[in-house]
Amino acid sequence: MRNRFTASLLAVGLAGVTLFTASGSAQGHGYVDSPISRQQLCGIGTVLNCGQIEWEPWSVEGLKGFPQRGPADGTICAGGNGRFSELDDPRAGSWPTTRLTAGREHTFVWRITAKHATTDFRYFVTKDGYNPTKKLTRADLEPQPFLTVPFGGVRPGATVTHSGVLPQKSGRHLIVGVWTVADTDNAFYTCSDVQF
After folding, report:
1. Which segment of the chain is annotated as a signal peptide (predicted)?
2. How many Å is the maximal CA-CA distance in the chain?
3. What predicted TM-score, i.e. pTM, was given to this entire model?
4. Can you give the CATH number for the domain in which 126 is found?
């Protein structure tokens, strides 16, 4: 009797996982590994108390069209997704940073777990005077991306790398990476705390 009950619970659990995955809300997609993103820091346990993003660092998906559309101010790092609101918490400016050299070339690395047809990858950086103790808004960002990598609808591989020259900045900043999907209404968002 106990084995039959355990088997029934397992079957129900597997059916739930299958349904959850088939609905699209738990499917993997992608995140930035270099410079390391907030969701990756949570996923590998460097930063604790991150909520659901600890198990889904690849799932920060929101409406595309940033900065004209997309996630609301204060919810940009979580892609406007309330399940991942811990990514928008500035944590009093204590997110770990990656050291970068302004004006030098950097290779950005994305880990892709679901290969969507892609319009482009774009990178925005905060303006001089950015306050890392407050939630990110569009007003904090330079109006134009400092790097855009067109993809023309091609599906990326499991790892995407592209190089670009970093902006002339100094001090602590935030880089917002946006992976725009070509065949849906969504994009993937990632925030990387950096020190120039």
Report:
1. 1-28
2. 68
3. 0.84
4. 2.70.50.50
